[in-house]
Amino acid sequence: MKIADIEFPEYPLFLAPMEDVTDPAFRLLCKQFGADMLYTEFISCDALIRSIKRTEQKLNFSEGERPLAIQIYGRDADTMAEAARIAEAVQPNIIDLNFGCPVKKVAGKGSGSGLLKDLPKLLEITSSVINAVKLPVTVKTRLGWDEDSKVIVELAERLQDVGIAALTIHGRTRAQMYTGDADWTLIGAVKNNPRMHIPIIGNGDVTTPERARECFDRYGVDAIMMGRAAIGKPWIFAEMKHYLKHGVHRADLSFDEKISIIKQQVLNAIDFLDEHRGIIHTRRHIALAPAFKGIPNFKPTRIAMLQATKLDELFAIIDSVKEPEFLVQENDSELDSFSQDQCAL
Known about the structure:
By secondary structure, this protein is α/β, with parallel strands linked by helices.
């Protein structure tokens, strides 16, 4: 499979762009474990053209992360085109357009998936960006705004006609947010449309090697993009790669190996930022790390880890955790909510 002149191996696995998640530290780990394509956190075009420092920092990446896409979002064609030119100047491999973010502060203002209610403007923005840069331009979007407006099959054709190099489809509507099951039947319908010739990347609820195999085989997608399944578990790419190639599961990492990876991510983040910001930026990953999931009576330790602000303090807490002799069931929704609240501090 190729996107423009970028060639990928069989069964490519991509890391989804995620705000406050896919920073360089996390991207490098995912690359180490086999991610074939990396994406930055999504970047506001309005903030980028105003030279907001924190936004400009999101353009930073290392050569070891290639191929890499910088993803931008906005609601105005001229502004998006100018932001794309700024992003192109740091020489990523791809410019990706976010037409899928469902959160209110983005979609509610007419950006991200909000543009699924105004397809002419969505296509105008896409065309403007393509004409503004020399790099390949790709798009990530959803099935439609809601259950009554699943426009993705028609939209995919129109985006291809405008000139995008590849299309990523998240198998939910904006109305679904991240609830319910991702609908891969419409992703498959786009891929199997005889008019389509650009690569189609599927996204949504791919959390196991078996599901990855099923999505490639049943729906015929050219690549799979993973988001939440990789948070706290960058080695998921290696697990899936092994299963897709050999048809059997890779030996699970030991508890100590998983702990070592978590600590390395913290150190990477500190190298890119500083001690305080690096620790804060990895809290979401620590909270959701499967190495800690199900350890009996672990909540006080998790709280202590998420409140630590110094490296020595954090590593002392992590090192105090012992491999459990047995696991208990956790309430995943409660853990997700808790970790997100803590990581916002």
